[in-house]
Write a structure and sequence with these properties.
The structure is a homooctamer of 221-residue chains. Chain A is of the alpha/beta class and 221 residues long. Helices cover 37% and strands 20% of the residues of chain A. Chain A has helices at 10-14, 27-40, 51-55, 59-64, 98-110, 127-131, 133-137, 151-157, 180-187, 202-215; strands spanning 19-21, 44-47, 65-68, 73-76, 84-92, 113-118, 141-146, 163-168, 194-196. Chain A has a five-stranded parallel sheet, with helices on both faces. In chain A, β5 (84-92), α5 (98-110) and β6 (113-118) form a beta-alpha-beta unit. In chain A, α5 crosses α10. The longest helix of chain A is centred in the first third of the chain and has 14 residues, at 27-40. The radius of gyration of chain A is 18 Å and the shape is globular. Chain A binds chain B through residues 10, 13-16, 19, 140-141, 157-165, 183, 187-188, 191-199, 201, 203-204, 207-208, 210-219, and chain B through 10, 13-16, 19, 140-141, 157-165, 183, 187-188, 191-199, 201, 203-204, 207-208, 210-219.
Chain lengths: 221, 221, 221, 221, 221, 221, 221, 221
């Protein structure tokens, strides 16, 4: 018995590719998956691959991967030609939220979508967000990334007509530790129509954005 | 000082209209809001208006409203001409989830979007879902409504490329009481790209769907 | 043994008067307290006194009280001459939060402080708050009252230099039910210097405001 | 006083042997237990024995044990002759769940039961499970191992008549961290008749399977 | 669109019949389901049907049902001939746990299995359990029903070799309110091999027992 | 099968009598228990018997009981001769905590122990507690009853050498709702040697006190 | 300003000595406290002093202390003459619970009380407890130490008349992780009169035992 | 795109300066922020900067900072002339709470406010607090810092008329671990008018104190 069966048909079925969530896998398991994908000539995105575990992969695996430590993502087989640009904007509440925001950007890039990234536009200094509103509104999908109390989600969703995907992060301490406060703030927002993903799940937000773009027939052209 | 200030500009700003969440408002407050909207000739959607509270509204208010007890929604000013049909499908895990599913349908109808509703396609009898897959895939947005363990969300998202919005419901008992189990299942789904809203929030799912449809330029024509 | 011992020295010690929290007391206990205070000629504030329990009080007790059903407060012995005006503003996120906001206002009035009340300036329609900023800034203390995701607290605290007291309310459903989400949002706010009180605790917010006003020597003159 | 008293009569009483849960025991305590069992000529299963703690055991203890690092199990005294084969199948949602699945397999083997193991048949790619259904149905007991949202439990229980034991794992992050989401999904499943054990408890699932097999008189022959 | 689609094939697939969970369904929905089943000549089990909701069903529905208020179960179409007797024993910690224990017994009877019921054998008076041990051990499957701290589960599982299914109940107050304490005690038991179902889920325990009995080939003859 | 088996030997075994926890029992079950005890000539204490349920008992049962509505306790067979006086003092934080305090007093009286009760000595007005310190110190066991933040437990335990049993109550709202805050305060007290019982468990505190008094040989004479 | 003020009067006030909880103190702070106590000639008990932190203390401090790594306790100034023996028995559910049990024993010894310790008498093998019952009953106070599901507390309290202090431990995983399950089991026990302390708080249990022994006048002689 | 946008206007808007929360930022990000602030000649406060992360900053950054390891704070640009003295007192429950208390003191000093610090005046030895009451009362604002059960907050607020800001700390174990117990005790205090900040948030308490001092017109002169 092999330990994994990759779902190469996924892109055909759901429009987004199989990816490998690494944090509960051993280095040996990840090595085997990379070897397998390489043999098949398949591109692959790996997420939540910490620097320590990356360093324990085999040399060929490490060399085959385009690894980015802050986002803990690795890409096997390189990026495709961009299919879309200027359709998704990633708005990031604080500097600390950037790794999650960039995980979303890398995931989008893996599928050929080039996103705009706006960093450090948190609510404590509202002018930073207001300055960027016209830029934000020019995109079809907004991925909002914020931790702590997550007030950014409501403020943003109350001001733009775009599809808004909220990514709560685990940035914070005390009652905010772990990200539940930001998550609940996104879900309970008084500004309606927010779509929410799991804590720190930049990857999932990117896939939700791709489903949304795919939902627009014109987008596929 | 009046007790409320309605945000009539919201549709211009975000693409979806102001609505009135009734469960923590008194009958007197709701009466005043209805009178005010009527004077301005504004249409209005009211949500989470329980039958007992509805019965305590003034006679003119009750007569002005199109009230639906199971969904606890009321519409002032009637429905608009449909702007879109066949773009949103609401998939409902169990008979008990129908009030939430229909709250979504009513909210969409209030904005001119006519949704398809598929009831009782839960995962315990998987054939019920499989039979409908082609029908579901023909829509741009899927609103999936389920309580208990919320397995429907993952199964569905693994099979269709549409934008999928998960609405966990408070249907269930024991560990499922209150809807946290279904909510967490949606957020932690192994099928990527799910967008999640608050527990029992059919209204919010509808608004998220409208933002998504609006994100597709062709959709607005 | 009597069942209660009122702490009439409290105002001397802490600057705010003894009050009676009614929700876990029987009607008989409350009757006895009112009789006792009346005999001593003491004024008294009663909080969380529901309409049903009020109706079960003795006739003399009911007649002696100035009762306000929405806020569930009752005042024995009338209001004092105002000592201060225009120093405290109560900013209220939604119409549903008004009972808590008014509990704060009534508590302040009981101590001679006349507060300004601004209703329905929630974050979903940010312009409602922005319009009032100059008015808000002219006060020394802001009591902000909001439920659901409590984004109002951060937005407000990021824009004004006043002392800001956040009162999270139990308004909301799903993950917001009970008020924990708004409470945690206030505590985890990215805008620093917020002071927070218990959920639905308009009474406590008023006392905190009085302590703050008392902390300013000029305020006592 | 000795620090432990092993319950050698357990197999006679309950049909499954005493085992040693190691994660809260010191290396010195484990060494003493192994010495004691060796002196008595007793076989022994040790669970949750991390690699670091294993390395701190005495040399004779380490040499006496058949240790398996990924499952953190160690066996003293070797495996018995198989008593049964093809009666239990372990179905594993993802590659990350394999250590728990294999803890179950090792525990069964310690009692003479040889289990079938099917890896990586998660719900995100449903075809992987459907392909194996006939194979699964040919067993008496199914041990289903899954983390994240645990949708596998419901899908499986809705499709097979076997006894199904769900082992939720702590694989996942955000709301799934620690395994509560998968646990609650198993308990609240819309597919009835699931039997659930503690998070990551492959050992307990194996013992439950043995009790079930023992419940069938024919099985004991 | 009809509001429900019953899964009549379930017994063929999983060995246990479709049942109707009533607590989140309206009386109108339940009436329609009963009419539909009656027309098809199908037997049906209804669970969690409270007395108040039962009284709101149509007269023909009420007359067609064998309703038992304490267990909140109703049976349409009568009981089948018994297929098995003396194979399942239901052991009940306290008098307060009896409704859940009897829900299990009624569910078993609906499928033709006649269970033994032992009431009030809680751990506070251990002799009551010890007296019954031989009787309990003579069954293949034990369903243990207990609330509060759920110590019964561990004591019982440590003493008998049968398959043991723990049903935690919501009996208790303070930290035991809602049944989480008993549930966690069952899951964390130091006596291995316990299989656990959701809080108050006598129905699910019965189905698990039926799956277990079905797992024994001799049992099917 | 009868539905209950009372543990009449308990007093011999543990020193405190069997009691009947009524809140999850039906009126019919309680009636049967009273009839049974009456036939045997046994005294019996019933706890958590709400006024509504008491009113649904049979007339003979109601007449046989000494019922006290605020504490929800009923005594069958009257009180015994006092065995001890002045050994236990019950200190009560607020008027709202009195029903729990009196449940403890009634339970003690049922076993022949006459307790002192000091009401409304909460920490907000510390002088009320300080005044009573000498009186409190003259007892062997202190039962401290408090809700909200439970600061009374620490203050008291830091000032007296007696055995101190903390009974947290569910008095409070917001974060204090349900009594967890007071419970955790008692358990985490910086004043060492506090013994804690379940929320609202005046009955259990009384039994703990009786065990403690029994632990002193002189007390048994 | 010095960083600490030791409460040397505590023994006079409460009967048990001041102790130093070390886990949140820096090595420098602990060093200073030891120096201070040494200068005053005071004995001192230090708890939760991990081996790593102990190794960072100054050489004189380390030499002055009688340190015991498994219990993380240190004693400055040696043990006193025993004042009592055979009055307290510590009953320990599993080998893993021994460090907490021995923290209690060391704390008692520091105050001159010599306790009996019975290890590994868990409920999974009930005979181990039953064998020791007469021995246990001969003591005035039982300190019961158990993790996981904490069934030991109920079984024990149902069988002995002694004062019983339950110390839940953090031994366990999954739902038992952190000790909440054992804590809640102790608080919700169906066997009445249990007194409970915080998770892993062997120190507090010893102090509670000392208060209880002090409550018996004969005990002080 | 740069990764941060500092909000230099904040002091003008809210009266307190921008600060940098470091615990979720990388050393590279912090280096860049320090370089940027140095170039602009701006003073800056950094919080939650652990010793390990500080050691990974660039040499110029480390040399430019006044770093204090126990409080994990660093100050760039030195302290200003004191603007106020003797207006704020920081009262600290235990030695373990000192790092949080000193974070508050350092934050105040950064803004020119010199605070009084009173250490180790916990409730277990109440005399330590009582001795200091007159000193405490002479200040306008009290910052109370306590962990475990947080009884200090109530005792203090019941005795002084000052503005009281409660800072719960994460000091404690078992149910107190993480600081929720102290936080809830502060929020649910029976002594009214407490203002609460997040767990371990000495920084936020200082900013709240500055807002309060600013609220007094005389304070601004």
């Amino acid at each position: 018995m092999t330990e994994f069966r990759l779902d190469w048909q996924r892109a055909g079925r759901t429009g987004t590719s199989e990816a490998v969530l690494c944090d509960a896998k051993s280095a040996a398991q990840i090595d085997a998956i990379i070897t397998h994908a390489t043999e098949l000539g398949q591109r692959l995105l790996l997420t939540r691959l910490g620097a320590r575990k990356f360093s324990r992969l085999s040399v060929p695996a490490r060399e085959a991967l385009d690894y980015d430590a802050p986002t803990r993502t690795a890409i096997l087989g390189g990026l495709p030609e961009p299919r879309g640009t200027g359709r998704v904007v990633i708005v990031c509440g604080g500097t600390s939220d950037l790794p999650v925001a960039r995980e979303a950007a890398r995931t989008l890039a893996f599928e050929g979508e080039v996103a705009t990234l706006l960093a450090d536009v948190g609510v404590a200094g509202l002018w930073r967000l207001i300055e960027r509103l016209d830029d934000i509104r020019s995109h079809r999908v907004v991925i909002a990334v914020a931790g702590m109390e997550g007030a950014l989600f409501s403020v943003l969703a109350g001001l733009v007509p775009c599809a808004v995907i909220a990514v709560p992060t685990s940035v914070g301490y005390g009652v905010a530790e772990g990200g539940r406060t930001a998550l609940h703030a996104a879900l309970a927002s008084c500004a309606s129509g927010l779509a929410v993903v799991n804590i720190d799940n930049g990857f999932g937000a990117a896939h939700a954005a791709l489903r949304i773009l795919g939902a627009a027939p014109s987008a596929a052209t």
